[in-house]
Amino acid sequence: MTELTIRTFHVFEASATQVWEVLADFGAIQQWWPAEGPLVIERVELEGQGVGMIRHIFNRGARHQVSERLEQLDPDERILKLSILGRDSGRAPWYQATARIVDLETDRCRLDYESQFRTPRGRENETREGILLAYQAMFSGLQNAATRANGEFGGSGPRAAPPAQRARSQ
Question: Is the pTM of this model over 0.85?
Answer without folding.
Answer: no
